[in-house]
Amino acid sequence: MITPDELRSKYLDFFRTKDHAVISGKSLIPENDPTVLFTTAGMHPLVPYLLGEPHPAGKRLVDYQKCVRTGDIDEVGDPAHLTCFEMLGNWSLGDYFKKESIAYSWEFLTSKDWLALDPRKLSVTVFKGDQNAPRDDESAFHWKSTGVPEDRIAYLPASDNWWAAGPSGPCGPDTEIFYWVAEGMPPAGSNKETDPANWMEIWNNVFMQFNRIDEKTLVKLPAQNVDTGMGLERTITVLNGKTSVYQTEIFQPIIAAIEFVSHYAYGSDQAKDTSVRIIADHIRAATFIIGDPKGVSPSNVGAGYVVRRLLRRAVRHGRKLGIEGSFLSGPAMIVIERFGGAYPELVENRERVLTELAREEAQFLETLQKGEHEFEKMLPNLLRNPQKIMSGRLAFKLYDTYGFPIELTDELAGENGMTVNRAEFDEAFKKHQELSRAGAGETFKGGLADHSEQTTRYHTATHLLHKALRMVLGDHVAQKGSNITTERLRFDFSHHSAMTAEEVARVQAIVNEQIARDLEVTMDVMPLEDAKAAGAMALFGEKYESVVKVYTIGDFSKEVCGGPHVDRIGSLGKFVIQKEQSSSAGVRRIRAVLE
Ligand code: SER
Known about the structure:
595 residues; 4 domains; binds serine
């Protein structure tokens, strides 16, 4: 049996022996990337470096990274899907390429000194080729040279073997590694193409050679990179001879905590088991998100809305298990205890996590009660309907006004011998979604880690603003968040009260004076301690490497930052603060544009 802690250490140790620098994983909330709500892959914080920025730790890197993907939140509950997972990753930034990457993966998986998996139970997939790029014969050649038989190699299309983190950004063909999860040995000819259900993906090696600018344009990156991602939960599953991530010791203690509060024994009823898995996944994800150094609280927008959805869904499934009161904190404490070693921020932010969970849970239970009460008020009228159909409009009203979930309206209607007109509900819901999507549209514009000229300009302007705020308001001003699109910057910072009109005007004037001086922007790589000693601003609570990049703007500002930035600030144009408002307790938010 191997534990998650052991697997993380082995992975880092193995790549250390291959001259990789161990870097720390980053926050779940991406900095300066307006295009996604969460860090969705191990490579995500490395996008600038994959695009060509030099990394201060060198060209061979390894880490473990917590990730959140909510795209298939509705699939969670089956044996394999998770919203929150860990990725073990190694990177070559313009250093080694396919041959070494494949050899390293094979050695780590099969060598007796490392994971010692049976090579006969491994198979791979390789990109089949299309109009954009040719078949990846090079990878196939290296697999064969390593000893993988031809019939264990499946050639698949871009939908399987082309990896891109978003509609734009670094991308390329990948080769994926699978482990046999059925009984006995895989028969001859079995691979991911012929026998998809019996092979579980454990590792993905992406050969990032291209940058997607837009739908039609794919350009070559300055260097050939390798980006690999090994799913920690899935690898633990196969290493320990299990068939579901929920059977592993990653989830078993969380499931035990749910059994304890629900008095339900996992394994006795299929539908209830699904609920247990959903609760386990969602509490784990919410604990990681709220417990992040840039923790997000449940709310009605952006990442906060995702947390809210996760928790409310967990509460609803708790009710399916017969839990009436609050129960989220018990399993959350287990998550903190089990993962606090690898992610100390969970321990540091324990109180915040437990408080937010309790608050959200209480609020939602109240919502449920109100909704049920409203339903009861509607009931006499509803029962008069001879067809026993509740209109979708009414069900939507319960949802929209009281936040009452449609599944519960369905249930209550069912208990009273009625059905809900779901088509009508769905139509009203769709209209509502379109409206909210219009609001969220900005989040998804531009593709992953947009490094267009315009966002780079806003990035540099953010440094100027940060410094000017400290000059006008004081040194207590610290960056709490930054969000940049091609049209504006948004900057959150700690400050106890609203800024006066005069303060806003002074900050704006200082930034514009510096722009008029057309200062040069320079970058240096140095140990973090030296950067701090040189007075560089660094984000409190952010995890940095021991060696960092420092961007200096003339004699005006010095900040630890991944970049990129403009070369001279004269090109920024006119800086205008459009809004200064409250963001949350003790945090102000500025929205500004470059004209
Ligand atoms: N970026 C790839 C993935 O997420 C490999 O790390 O699968």
